[in-house]
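User: Now give one protein:

AI:
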Amino acid sequence: MMFRIGKISQVQQIFLLEDNALENKRMTLITTLEHPQLRCVWVNPNNARYLAYHDEEWGVPVHDDRQLFEMLILEGAQAGLSWETILNRRDDYRRAFYNFDVEKVAAMSDHDLNVLLQPESKIIRNRLKVYATRRNAQSFLLIQREFGCFDTYLWAYVGGAPLQPNRGGINIIPAQTEHSVALSKNLKKRGMTFVGPTIMYAFMQAVGMVNDHTCDCFRFSALRSVQ
C-alpha cells in the first residue's frame, strides 16, 4: 500500500522553523558547556562590556600615550569604587575629557571642571578626582617633555617588557608590588594625585606591564609572548 504525502501547510512550516531555531540554540548551549572559555574569576559574565574589556584589553601592553593617560585617569577615578562602575561610564569620561587629549585636559578651566560636578554629569562627581584629572594631565605633559613620551618613562619601571608571574589563583595576586610602589612615589613627587601604589598596580595590570591573568584563564597564554 502506498501513502500519498501531501504538501505541508504554512503552519507546519512555521513549527518546523521554530524547532530548527530551538535546536540551533540547544547545540550552541551544549558547545559552550562542553568547551567553556575560562576567564579570570573577577569578570562579571553578565556584562558584555566587562567581558570584552577582559578578553581584548586587560593585560595587553599599551605604548600609546593617549591610551596610557586614559587608563591612568580611569584607574584613579576607580579609587573606592569597583572597576565595573568606571568601565560602564567610560564613554562618558571620554566625552567629558576630550577623549583624553592630554593637552586639552591640562588646559581645562575651573569652570570646565565645575560643569562636570553638576547633577547632570554622568561621570563620578567627586571634586578631588575631577580636579586631579587636570593636575595629572599637566604633570603628564612635563614627563613627556622630559622623556620624549610617557611610554618611555613608564615602561622603564619593568625593564621595558611585561612581567610574567604565574598566578595560580586570584588569591595570590598582590594589591601592590615594589614596582608599583616606586612608580607611585615618583608620580607623587611630580605632582600627581590618586596614584597610590595599589592604584598604580591596577594601572600596571591594565596596560600590560604585568600579565596577571591567572594560569587557568585563556588570556594568560595568549599574552605570554606579547611585548
Remarks:
- The chain has twelve helices and no strands.
- Residues 49 and 88 are 7 Å apart (CA to CA).
